[in-house]
Amino acid sequence: MKVVRSVQQQPEQALLIGVEFSRRQRLGAQLRGLAREDSLAELAELARTAGASVVARLTQTRPRPDPAYFIGQGKVDALRTEVAATGANLLIFNHDLTPTQLRNIEDATDCRTIDRTQLILDIFARHARSHEGQLQVELAQLNYLLPRLTGRGIELSRLGGGIGTRGPGETQLETDRRRIRRRLRKIQQELEAVRRRRAQQRSARQAAALATVALVGYTNTGKSTLFNALTRAEVHVSEQMFATLDPTIRALTLPSGRRVLLADTVGFLRNLPPGLVAAFRATLEEVQEAAMLIHVSDISNPHHQQQDAEVEKVLAELGVADKPRLHVFNKLDLLPKAERHTLRNHNRTAFASALKRIGLEALRRLLEQALPSDRRVRLRLKLSPTQGRELARLHAQGCVIAQEYRDGTILLDAEIPEALVPQFAAYKL
Questions:
Q1: At the N or C end, where does the chain have fewer CB atoms within 10 A?
Q2: CA torsion 5→6→9→13, rounded to 10°?
Q3: At 82, which helix (H) or strand (E)?
Q4: Angle at CA 135, nearest 5°, toward 293 and 282?
Q5: What is the pLDDT of residues 276-317, one digit of tens each?
Q6: Could you tell me the strand order of the sheet in which 13-21 lies?
């Protein structure tokens, strides 16, 4: 089974629904720190990323969600009127809905309805390019669908799809729970194989004594643009949310000549579906195994502090909240010049524009200062001229102080990273 992408001739006409709870208990916490309008603005950006055209927005304040419709009966009537007036053919709620609520709203409005998690899963399905990415998205989709099959059989079996229907729902998996569970086991086995391959790759990198630095941050803060600017790579860059799903790793040379590996990773989002975080465990292990993190923020976004708080929550969930970190405020070029000139790098905070290549050299210097020390060890070594690989590694990752040829061998005085010493122990004099 593969993640299926359906092609839309025309963008779907989406009507967004946001609810704020006056009694800010468990559900109300979803909107804490962000005003209702800002929350809907983010939902609109997600909808546009999924290929929809937003035609209207509807909001409501309630003490608690209605068990049958999530919104009140009066607002359901208003929603039905708004659908008729705008021609909307898709309702997107900025909350997770129960299967009963979804079915009741669709019956009352005669309009297809999805919730926020379905929207996010759809975007991931659109952007999953590698086999690994597709597996991870499908795992999250199936885990989301399995407990929701009851009462949704007609909707989930529709062909032709649309936003929120890409993937396993189009193959009638909802009629056979056992088949879904078999598929889940198969995906988990394949992802375990991916994890083992990644672990082997990390071991090889660690043997080369190269530290890994991982870029993390909210979605669409410019992580991939910064990655390309620092490493001269050509990772796909887009203004759409979640343009990067698969981690990419490239070498980065710091001002002293020290080489590290820089990893570009998937962006975070407030209230990111837990199943999605679990599904992308193999990818997010690059963050967990990194020697240091670079937290990238969009300083031009007026709500970047709230976004940073959401990133902190995900990092805590991954168990890396205490990992050494450098905070980079990106998109400096979008600030007014007067405000821009008041900002200065300090300690572990840097200001930059990856797009305009502003502040990159200062960022490299700050990164080198912040990285855990790479202690060097001086050795005298004896190698054969045929050991070209070892000689190349000495020159690439160490510093050859003196070198002479004697009796068909090469004698060297070199300084190398401490982690490389075991690999050259057999050649020590």
A1: C
A2: -90
A3: helix 73-86
A4: 30
A5: 777 677 667 778 888 899 999 999 988 899 899 989 988 998
A6: 53-62, 13-21, 90-93, 112-114
